Amino acid sequence: MRQRPFRQVDVFTDQPYLGNPLAVVLDGEGLTTEAMQQFTDWTNLSEATFLLPPTPEGRVAGADYRVRIFSPGRELPFAGHPTLGSCHAWLEAGGQPHTAGRVVQECGVGLVALRQDGDRLAFAAPPLIRSGPLDEADVARIAQGLGVARSDILHHAWCDNGPNWRGVMLQSAAQVLALKPDGAILGGLDVGVVGPRSKVGVVGSSDEHGIAFEVRAFFPGSNGLSEDPVTGSLNAALAQWLIGAGLAPTHYVASQGTALGRAGRVHVAQEGSAIWVGGSTVTCVRGEVLL
Question: How far apart (Å, rounded) are the C-alpha atoms in residues 28 and 5?
Answer without folding.
Answer: 9
